[in-house]
């Protein structure tokens, strides 16, 4: 009887872990609609109310990229869920993509700005020299929730 209870409890824990989407360090497993952006570009994003979406930017932390959300969007229109990162190759210096995951809330418009501070000492600091300033920049997303 004790073995059956322990086996049932273990199975329940395994099923709970499988349903959470946690794996490889990711907080979410569903990025929803993925929209790609880049430094110096403005991209229009159209999603429905209740629809999950992700803003994707290519980065390479080993060369100095540090993407961050400049300001949280209008919470009535879209809510921020998390920032995720996926490596492109798995080896050191291989780069990858950062995903900023959101949920469309209610019909409306908002703007989301992502900033890549290249080779900055920390995420909140600004560029430290002219090269850093020249390589840093924003990706802008004009979000329309229908």
Task: Give an overview in words.
With 146 residues, the protein is α/β, with parallel strands linked by helices. The protein has one domain: Immunoglobulin-like (Sandwich), CATH 2.60.40.2020. The chain has two helices and eight strands; from the N terminus they run H-E-E-E-E-E-E-E-H-E. The strands form two sheets. A four-stranded mixed β-sheet has the order 1-3-6-5, with no helix packed on it. Strands 2-8-7-4 form a four-stranded mixed β-sheet. The model is unreliable at 1-24 (pLDDT under 50).
Structural class: alpha/beta
What topology, given as strand order, has the largest sheet? 1-3-6-5
Contiguous helical run count:
2
Strand content: 35-45%
CATH fold topology: Immunoglobulin-like
Can you give keywords for this protein?
146 residues, 8 strands, 4-stranded mixed sheet, 40% strand, alpha/beta, Immunoglobulin-like
Brief characterization of the structure:
By secondary structure, the chain is of the alpha/beta class. Helices cover 17% and strands 40% of the residues. It contains two helices and eight strands.
